[in-house]
Amino acid sequence: MKQPFLRFYLDSHENRNGERKIFLDISIGYSEIDYGKSVKNFNSDRKKYKPIKIATGCRIKPENFGKQIEKGSKKVFSFDKKIFDKYSRVNRSIRTKLEQIENAVIEVTNHFYIKKHNPTPKEFKDLLEIELGRKAGEVIKQKSVLEYLYDKIKADRVDAKQGKKMHYHQII
């Protein structure tokens, strides 16, 4: 897994106030090969990179997000740090939320580096949502010694009623 690349962008739909949702694209270098495509020059022509898309839960006016540029026939807003920092002095909550998401991405990346595991986008996104508190993580409850002994006694009583012989070397 390579170091993730983060890119913030705006949704194309505005609400009544002229605000748009902020989304995040995370590129971890994960790719899949599409065998349906024909090979033009190299085998890498079939490769398709899969980014991870996540909603930040924030809305902002486009002019406070960045500069408007033309991409093909569309006009889009690209993230500009100077414009955003100037706006975030007034509205600090958006900047804080985006920093929390960036920190969560770093934590998830470190988790996979430690395990030496190259995650799929779904695995990365699931762990990221758990880290952000949007999903509940799996809680594995371990039995205490007392609970284990109660369960063992209950199982032994059932076995005794059925007439099963108990071998003491099986207990240990």
Quick take:
The protein is α+β, with helices and mostly antiparallel strands.
Looking across the biggest beta sheet, what order are the strands in? 1-2-5
Shape: elongated
Topology order in helix (H) and strand (E) letters: EEEEEHEEHHHHH
Content-based structural category: alpha+beta
| Number of helical stretches of at least 4 residues | 6
Mean pLDDT: 84
| Poorly predicted regions | none
Radius of gyration using CA atoms only: 26 Å
Number of strands: 7
Distance between the termini: 44 Å
Please give the largest β-sheet.
3 strands, antiparallel
Bin the helical content.
40-55%
How much of the sequence is in beta strands? 15-25%
Protein model, in words:
A three-stranded antiparallel beta sheet has the order 1-2-5. The two termini are 44 Å apart. The mean pLDDT is 84. By secondary structure, it is an alpha+beta fold. It has helices at 62-65, 81-88, 92-115, 121-132, 145-161, 168-171; strands spanning 5-10, 20-27, 31-33, 47-49, 52-60, 66-71, 74-79. The radius of gyration is 26 Å and the shape is elongated. It contains six helices and seven strands, in the order E-E-E-E-E-H-E-E-H-H-H-H-H. This is Arm DNA-binding domain-containing protein. It comes from Flavivirga amylovorans.
Keywords summarizing the entry:
172 residues, alpha+beta, 3-stranded antiparallel beta sheet, two-stranded antiparallel sheet, elongated, Arm DNA-binding domain-containing protein
Would you spell out the secondary-structure blueprint of this structure?
Elements: E1 5-10, E2 20-27, E3 31-33, E4 47-49, E5 52-60, H1 62-65, E6 66-71, E7 74-79, H2 81-88, H3 92-115, H4 121-132, H5 145-161, H6 168-171
Antiparallel strand pairs: 1-2, 2-5, 3-4, 6-7
Helix pairs in contact: 2-3, 3-4
